[in-house]
Amino acid sequence: MLSTMQDVPLLISRILTHGSTIHGTSQVTTWTGEAEPHRRSFAEVGARAAQLAHALRDDLGVAADERVATLMWNNAEHVEAYFAIPSMGAVLHTLNLRLPAEQLAWIVNHAADRVVIANGSLLPLLVPLLPHLKTVKHVVVSGPGDRSGLADADVQVHEYEDLITGKPITYDWPELDERQAAAMCYTSGTTGDPKGVVYSHRSVYLHSMQVNMTQSMGLTDQDTSLIVVPQFHVNAWGLPHATFMTGVNMLMPDRFLQPAPLAEMIEGEKPTHAAAVPTIWQGLLAELTAKPRDVSTLGQVTIGGSACPPSLMQAFDKLGMRVCHAWGMTETSPLGTVARPPAHAVGTEEEFGYRLTQGRFPTSVEARLTGPGGERLPWDGESAGELEVRGPWIAGAYYNGPDSEPLRPADKFSEDGWLKTGDVGIISPDGFLTLTDRAKDVIKSGGEWISSVELENALMSHPDVAEAAVVAVPDDKWGERPLATVVLREGASTDFEALRTFLAEEGKIAKWQLPERWTVITAVPKTSVGKFDKKVLRRQYAEGGLDVTQL
Amino acid sequence: MLSTMQDVPLLISRILTHGSTIHGTSQVTTWTGEAEPHRRSFAEVGARAAQLAHALRDDLGVAADERVATLMWNNAEHVEAYFAIPSMGAVLHTLNLRLPAEQLAWIVNHAADRVVIANGSLLPLLVPLLPHLKTVKHVVVSGPGDRSGLADADVQVHEYEDLITGKPITYDWPELDERQAAAMCYTSGTTGDPKGVVYSHRSVYLHSMQVNMTQSMGLTDQDTSLIVVPQFHVNAWGLPHATFMTGVNMLMPDRFLQPAPLAEMIEGEKPTHAAAVPTIWQGLLAELTAKPRDVSTLGQVTIGGSACPPSLMQAFDKLGMRVCHAWGMTETSPLGTVARPPAHAVGTEEEFGYRLTQGRFPTSVEARLTGPGGERLPWDGESAGELEVRGPWIAGAYYNGPDSEPLRPADKFSEDGWLKTGDVGIISPDGFLTLTDRAKDVIKSGGEWISSVELENALMSHPDVAEAAVVAVPDDKWGERPLATVVLREGASTDFEALRTFLAEEGKIAKWQLPERWTVITAVPKTSVGKFDKKVLRRQYAEGGLDVTQL
């Protein structure tokens, strides 16, 4: 029996129309580095998005679901692209300007982007790429920056403002299938080619509703959100779409992501909310310590991307900025969990512990834990397993180019279609997730999992240890066992037995998890973004390059 | 180009599973009239919903999308039925216990209900109906009440608790199409047969998300919601579903809807939110005035169903209960608008004016105004037209029985599928709706509309006028013109010229809208629910039964 409800698709054009009419006076404020930031109302953004869509279709010939890429900072024009491109039926492809040049070129070619809209300040990055881009016919430039590098390029070059000027300020947005592609984002995996995640109108719409629910960010039109998380990074956590649903004002830092201008924009524009990764907040905290400013309006800070250190959370609490942890990934749109403590913990000693977890799953994200043998593990706050998730804004495949079938690698998707997150963690009976390790780093010992991160944190709390990395090494009896690689502080002497005892006593590590294999190294190898590069250590061990003591 | 997102349907079973695990400790508290109310956790509700589904399928043979009706107050068992019936794939049909018996029987037969779950206290209403119910095979009785009337009934009778006891507390909920019917509700139209609105899993799910958005009720698991609006009245405005998404505690009054027990449950259980129609609040206010109680926890009160008089809103403000207006109807699930003032008005003199409007449309509800000649009218805060709406939780048809096509009467649905609400109003440029009349009561004069309600309110503000009703009567020149029918206060004398002058001067009615036809009546005829019955006045005029003075 079918319902008698109207069959109305969930489309991004609806969010745009709503935001630019009912919340037409809300503002997108873009930092310019000058005395006055640039201000544009949602109504103006809506009108200009319509103009951009006309220009893309009529002047640049963008048709059907062709891809239009952006190489842009967070600013009003990027918001216009966010809405114009999917609303007209094309696909927004946000390019991560932090990626190595050859990866960027690979991604643009893989997505077959027809147009790139770029900020003038990013042309030094784009120009050297252009000879390698096979499908790009047009470059549209917006904002300040030297254009001279484009003179010899084999593409048509347009000025953003010239392109849209005089175009009609409304557009008859097509009634699309809500499952059609709206936007795409590539994950920068450490191994293999980057993988494309393609969001649908449906997934973006539902995700935006979730962001506005009280369990998530829960902002209103009385709020201003400082969106530091880049628009090229998982849709800026869905904030540009979500704010258009509720009229939340956006404060956009453009290229001014350094601590000093961030502190300045908080003091000057008085945002009530901000969203960024922990590194940004570390820098901001140092800046505010060195040069105090009035940041009292900023009551809520969403932190994701990686776990927020407890000390940072406490430091922000003291400044009146309440940190709220969230977890997600490119494949999860990204809202997977948000750490709002449950009612019974609010105001009690338990509260801080809840805030340190990754958070609780919303209704639309189903979660399960899979153990080392593929078995389902209970939500008992103790059993660690790989987190798998399912839901309408969770990826079920990767994009494999315009003419190929979607990719469903078995290490990323279960047979029944769930996303394997690659994260290992525990879930409490009331649904709070705590991540303990990456699946590739966890030590699989006798059918149980040992968290490398837990051992590392315990080791690094010892006064003699400067850094420590723990990796899995093959073991005849147990399958795998942990190898502890330790960087000692200057003047400290090697006493593995003492460290092992410390782990058991002070680190509260279970006896069966204690490493037998130990080695001292001069520094932990790091990736380009500063994470421990455990691949290198595992290879050194395999090749016999480490001097290992067996206890 | 299709997205790579998972294709996960939006199902009520997901809301149930989420609420009964992640929010398992939240509570449904049901008033019993005794010292202690009855308390049941969401986890228990979830387990019992699974048991009910097993019983309905295995013991009562409910299959596929058969209809299971409820004739129940707001209580924990009704919440169990709300989740069990749609989650198993059947259709929940909530029966409005305020309807006349013959209408109820007609509705049950039209929906072809197979089972009725009834509260024991409502058997006096159900028992006389049973001989007229053609499809009902089973009656399930829950809660106190004399069962003896069922002894001779030609149906199988079951005790709710006996039926579910011992059944498994989990159920493998089927993966349904999200557009499948989940629940149905009949509108009690004043003319013609009642019309069935059939909600889908998709519409209920999206509506629940909206209720939890900050623009709407925006509650959290720290809240307790006193749900006075009946579960048989448009799904209790979506609250039972929405609370399971966020862990909001429910306080259910069962049959104790009188002012005294309501005041008692507010004082005793300290809800932070309540939802009801204005009449309930009028009664509660009188009760609190006569016998003050501590109602200080109740910060937010959602009022819908009909407009809240300004005086009532102000009186509640003084008690610390902030009234929030909402507008909707059975056909809109019901959330159509919510009157949260825009940021710029908060704390200003404008704020109260915004709160008196019907409110602002959420992203998923598109609205347009259609004028007397079918033309689209602007959102200028002045042009009055019939409100038409479109969206994923808005009806596009009526149910026409198990074997017939859906009904799309032209006076209820536009050719392009929008719902004609039958309400006439204006919309401000920032999307706030103010309803001025019902379409059937508006006076269509020379291609413009005159609001009967506006004229009545202005007339009733004159000291000599006790009551006044204004109806459209045929006019050769203008098509229709207003007829003012006035009930004078005791001792007042008839002076229509003075009233007309008063309308123009004090009532600020435009000259062309002033009535020429006047009559004095002894009382305005009323419908069974106390509304002005203008049909009677129109008929009396047509039959020459009124003594009309022409000015």
UniProtKB/TrEMBL annotation, chains A, B:
SUPFAM superfamilies: Acetyl-CoA synthetase-like. Keywords: ATP-binding, Helicase, Hydrolase, Ligase, Nucleotide-binding. Residues 36-399 form the AMP-dependent synthetase/ligase domain. The keyword RNA-binding does not apply. Residues 454-531 form the AMP-binding enzyme C-terminal domain. GO terms for molecular function: helicase activity; ligase activity. PROSITE patterns: AMP_BINDING. This is Long-chain fatty acid--CoA ligase. It comes from Streptomyces shaanxiensis.
